[in-house]
Every structure is written in structure tokens, then in C-alpha cells.
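Exercise: predict the fold of this chain.
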Amino acid sequence: MSSYTSLLKTRGVARIIAAQLTARFPFGMLSLAFLLHIEHTYDSYGVAGLVLAALSIGQAIAGPITSRLMGIWGMRRVILLTMIVCSIAISSIALLPLTIPAAMGVAFIAGLTMPPIQPAVRTIYPKMVNSKQLTPLFSLDASAQEIIWVLGPVITTFVSIQIGTVWGILLAVAFLVGGGIWFLTSPELGRVRIPRSKRKIGAVLKKPPVLLATIVGFLLVAACAAIEAGVVSTFGEGGAEAGFVLAIFAVGSLAGGLSLGHKPIGPWALARRMAIVFVGTAIAAAWLNVWWLAVTLFIAGIGIAPALAVMFAIVSASVRFSDTAEAYGWVGTGQLIGAAVGSALAGFLIDGVGSVGAFLVAAALALLGFLVPLLGKRFHPDLRGRDASPLPDTEPVQTVTG
């Protein structure tokens, strides 16, 4: 834990982590807030699913595009513009009497303009700490984001049920704008300029570590989405057990990130961490009892944040600084598509064979998530004793010192 203590004492680290988590908090709120509001408005979960699908498609398309634009227009300009448009679109769904096609269109715009906070902050990190601190910082970031997925749904459910679904959505907008402004005014954002990339968009996927991280991220998040669907199906949407089990799942990820984040990243690192996810998920399917699922999913969760930290590190170490934001944008897009695919596959299996089907899907996806880095070991950088910072560009990177 001493490595994390020294990290948080490093100038600006605690502030930038807190600011970006606040700005990204709506990611843990919007899906549930939209689901509750659209179902209440149109009396249809099917319509809610269509609106959420439009939101996810917009986010998936935007990932690499808005990330790349930060190298052309600058991080602050892109984040500010997308934050304004996105907050207006989200508020429109809450406040305006929209038809179903209009609601889908506005949700698509909201997804398309979701501020690229995550690619921005992971591009900034290598400029804030020394090479020995970078991997633990990625791990701390991956662990801390579990707060979003634990508290976000709880806060959204409480506000939407106790006060109203409109206020549940508007609270997410408040976090988006408030956290976005906090992040935009952070001095660290002004000290780093992303150079304009000279490559065509998508060329960064030719880097094997980036492609590896994108594929494994897709499989990992798909497995997590299937697990979530399986837990909700097992205990019901309103069951307190579902919330308890999913919270334990997230706590496992937090614990794993903090305990394994300082470990050196060798060529087997990603496969080993995905093996933990697979084992925990596979044995979870044996018995759908609340305590059994809590224990086994805690085990599975131990591998999640460490696996994400490895993906961030191998991407950072494999691309030029000008390509880092776009690379993280592609990784994020893979994860968004994974969430949609995992939920869909789990839904089909739940309808066909019951709740256990979702856990079988999750185990199969986690197994693939283990096999891909195992078989693709030669594409996995060995970062033991090596700097995980991005490769330098051929032209100078401008920085402004305070």
C-alpha cells in the first residue's frame, strides 16, 4: 500500500483522480436512469432497450473519433464542446415529451458526444508520475472506478424512486457538468498537449498490444455484463440480494486492483489475471445461492481491475504519445460493444435455459478472455524493469510548467 500512498502524495494525482471519477460518474448512472425513466414514460422495457442501444452505439462510434480530435483541437476544447452538447441531449430526454424515434435519436447524440474523459486522463497520467509509478497508477485508477459502478446505480435508484425519474437523470447531468468543469480546470490538463497524429484513424489497431487489449477488454466486459444479467435474473430486479452480490463483485475488483497493482507486468500477466476471472465465474455457475455467488464472484472480481490495469499499461508502452488517446478510445469502444454483446447473449440463454445460462455464457467469454492473451503471449510486452510510458514522437511535445 505504500506505493499508493506515495502516488496520492504526488502533486496533482489525487485531484485528477477525484475530478475524472466525478466527471465519469454518470457512466454508472445513465443506463439505469434511462431505463427507469423511459419505462415509466412509455410503459415499455422494449422501448427503454432501444433508447439504451442508441446511447451505446453512439458511445462506441465516438470513442476513437473524439479521442483523436483531442490531438487536433486540444483536450479542453473537445471535452468542453462534447460536455455541453451531451448535457443538453441527456436533459432533453428527461424534460421534453419526445416520440420514440426522437428519444432514440437524442440518446444517440448523447452517446456520440459523451466527453472523452477516460482517454484524456490516461494520456495525462504518464506525464504526471515517474516510470515506476505509472503501472500502480493505472491499477489505482482501474480500482477506483469501481466506486462508479457500486454507488452510481444505488444513488440513481434511490433518487428515481423516492423523488422521480426526471431527477435521477438530471442528477447524472449535474455530475457530468460539475465533474467536467472540475476536470477542465485542473492544472494538469493545461500542462500537456497531445501532438496531432500523422496516421490514419484506426492505424493504431495495427499495433498488436492495442489489438490484444481491445479484444480482451471486449471479452472481459462482455463476461461482466453477462454476470450482471445472471445475478439480476436470479434474484429479480428488486431483490436486495442482487445488489449485495454485485457490490461484492465490485469490491473484489477493488481489492484485486489494490493488492496486485504494484506487481511487475510480464508477458503472462494478462493471461494470469483473466484466469482468475474465468475460475471464479465458472465455479459460480455451480450453485445460484446468494452466499455462493458472493464468494465466487468476489474471487472473479479479484482479476478484473488488475486485468484492466495491464491493458492500459501495455497500450501505453506500445504506441507513440500522439496515438495514446485514440488507442484508449478503441479499447473503450471494444468494452462498450462487449457490454452490449454480453447482455444480449445472457438474455438469450436466460430465456432458453434459465439464470444459469447467463453464468455459462460469462464463463465461456472469460475462458476466451484467458485463451486470447495465452495464445497471443508474443504480442504482450514484457514491462518488467521497463518504462510503461508512451513512445516519444519524432517532434517535440509542448508542455507548460506551472
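Check your answer against the key: DSSP finds 18 helices and no strands in the chain.
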